[in-house]
From TrEMBL:
One of its GO terms (biological process) is 'de novo' pyrimidine nucleobase biosynthetic process. The keyword Transferase applies. This is Aspartate carbamoyltransferase. The keyword Methyltransferase does not apply. Catalyzes the condensation of carbamoyl phosphate and aspartate to form carbamoyl aspartate and inorganic phosphate, the committed step in the de novo pyrimidine nucleotide biosynthesis pathway. InterPro entries: Asp/Orn_carbamoyltranf_P-bd (IPR006132), Asp/Orn_carbamoylTrfase (IPR006130), Asp/Orn_carbamoylTrfase_sf (IPR036901), Asp_carbamoyltransf (IPR002082), Asp_carbamoyltransf_Asp/Orn-bd (IPR006131). Heterododecamer (2C3:3R2) of six catalytic PyrB chains organized as two trimers (C3), and six regulatory PyrI chains organized as three dimers (R2). It catalyses: carbamoyl phosphate + L-aspartate = N-carbamoyl-L-aspartate + phosphate + H(+). It is an enzyme of class 2 (transferase). It comes from Brumimicrobium aurantiacum. Keywords: Pyrimidine biosynthesis, Transferase. Pathway: Pyrimidine metabolism; UMP biosynthesis via de novo pathway; (S)-dihydroorotate from bicarbonate: step 2/3. Its EC number is 2.1.3.2. Gene3D superfamilies: Aspartate/ornithine carbamoyltransferase (3.40.50.1370).
Length: 309
């Protein structure tokens, strides 16, 4: 088996194109496993994993836990709410206490950008970033690309537009790195105030007109407006945002070709995407969620093979 070039999964920025291929090839094998009547393999019977979530999550948390259990790992779950973090315990103290219980790997979501890297430099365990503030969400980008590969055959040469709140989105940044490393062309689309000033340094196209962006692309990844990360008002009202950047069925059907529609979730139905688009045949939103388990099984399996025992 080929080895990954990194010891922790902090971001897609640090992965090589070959790393992404290895993860996809491993996910292919696990996807076959999770479609069998017996969905479990004994691969990680000797591995203990802590899922440490300092921020809310539905998909990522459930998906990691399911992936770990399907690999037969022992799993402990930690949520900051209801923990001693509320009494002032630091991140490193919290995680070191968990590691004293002989944990091999930490899957962490944290509101601060850089928290996963900070942790990886201070603890003796593999660290998997499950989203660190506005920085990266590597497993989301991997499952997004994997879903494009599954739907369109390959990612190379495909045109992908990421629409919405690019400024506050870790999903956008991880997707830009992942798609470019696989040879896709990337465009971002949204109001000027929600496009970061450094975007051109990333080598992506910028389009402020949604119809033009959709006519250009093969795949549209519609992002949620992250109101919880917005300290000031970036657009006059949600209603106006929806009028300019929301994808509805009328707009989708009026395009000159059939595009693939994605969304990382959680969806705000009626804001960035209408229900009839989210639930349409062109949407692969639930395929993304399904593929998340196979991708996370692959990631955990590959990083577990690097644990020093
Ligand atoms: N896509 C995603 O990260 O969803 P959750 O916040 O529910 O984990």
């Amino acid at each position: 088996m080929d080895n990954l070039s990194v010891d922790h999964l902090i971001g897609i920025e640090h992965l090589t194109p070959r790393d992404i291929e290895i993860i996809f090839e491993t996910a292919d094998r696990f996807k076959e496993v999770i479609n069998r009547p017996i969905k479990k393999v004994p691969s990680l019977r000797d591995t203990t994993i802590a899922n440490v979530f300092f921020e809310n999550s539905t998909r990522t948390k459930l998906s990691f836990e399911l992936a770990e259990k399907r690999l037969s790992a022992d799993v402990v779950n930690f949520s900051a709410s209801g923990s001693s973090v509320k009494k002032g315990e630091t991140l490193v103290d919290t995680v070191n206490n968990i590691l004293s219980m002989k944990v091999d790997m930490v899957v962490m979501r944290h509101p601060n950008p850089g928290a996963a890297k900070f942790l990886s430099e201070r603890v003796d365990a593999k660290v998997i970033n499950a989203g660190d503030g506005t920085h990266e969400h590597p497993t989301q980008a991997l499952l997004d690309s994997y879903s494009i590969r599954e739907k369109l055959g390959e990612v190379k040469g495909k045109k992908v537009v990421i629409v919405g709140d690019i400024l506050h989105s870790r999903v956008a940044l991880s997707n830009i790195y992942a798609l470019q490393k696989q040879g896709a062309e990337v465009m971002v689309c949204g109001p000027t105030t929600l496009i970061p000033k450094y975007i051109h340094e990333l080598g992506v196209k910028v389009e402020h007109n949604l119809r033009k962006a959709l006519e250009w692309c093969d795949v549209a990844n519609m992002l949620r407006i992250q109101l919880e990360r917005q300290d000031i008002q970036y657009f006059p009202s949600l209603r106006e945002y929806t009028m300019l950047y929301g994808l509805d069925k009328k707009l989708l059907d009026s395009l000159s070709k059939k595009i693939v529609v994605m969304h990382p979730g959680p969806i705000n139905r009626g804001v960035e995407i209408t229900s009839d688009v989210a639930d349409s045949k062109q949407s692969i939103i639930l395929n993304q969620v399904e593929n998340g388990v196979a991708i996370r099984m692959a990631v955990i399996y590959l990083f577990a093979s690097k644990i020093n025992r």
